[in-house]
Amino acid sequence: MNTRPSSILRSMVLGGLLVSALVRVLILLTASPVPDPVSGRTEPSLFAPLISRDWDYITPLQNWLMIVLVSATLICFVAWVVVAWRERRQDAAGTQSRRMVGRQGR
């Protein structure tokens, strides 16, 4: 069976979104907790976004990893849209040439 390139790119986009979300969760759960000055508890920034807005809990390596993953996902998304559009145009052009003259699709 012949798989269309748009199907492959769609799968890559969905996989990239899932991997990016998984890496984000792993970064947040393994982050060094910042003590809350009010309660004294330590929570990751996911659960206390107003306290830690400075992004110091992410290492430069983790930051670059997220940049690469999100960039690759965005590139695959744009490629998927372009390839799907071109496939639709190609399919539409192929069906018009098969029509019989004078029958109007009957």
Structural class: mainly alpha
Q: Strand arrangement, largest sheet?
A: 1-2
Unreliable runs, pLDDT <50, ≥5 residues? none
Helix content: 55-70%
pLDDT averaged residue by residue: 76
Give, in order, the helices and strands: HEEH
**Which of globular, elongated, flat, extended, rod-shaped describes the shape?**
rod-shaped
Count of distinct strands: 2
Largest sheet: 2 strands, antiparallel
**What is the end-to-end distance?**
31 Å
Total helices: the number is: 2
Rg (C-alpha, Å):
24 Å
β-sheet strand percentage: under 5%
**What is the subunit arrangement here?**
single chain
Protein architecture, described:
- This protein has 106 residues and is mainly α.
- The protein has helices at residues 5-30, 60-96, and strands at residues 34-35, 42-43.
- The protein has a two-stranded antiparallel ribbon with strand order 1-2.
- A hairpin with a 6-residue loop joins strand 1 and strand 2.
- Helix 1 runs antiparallel to helix 2.
- The protein is rod-shaped.
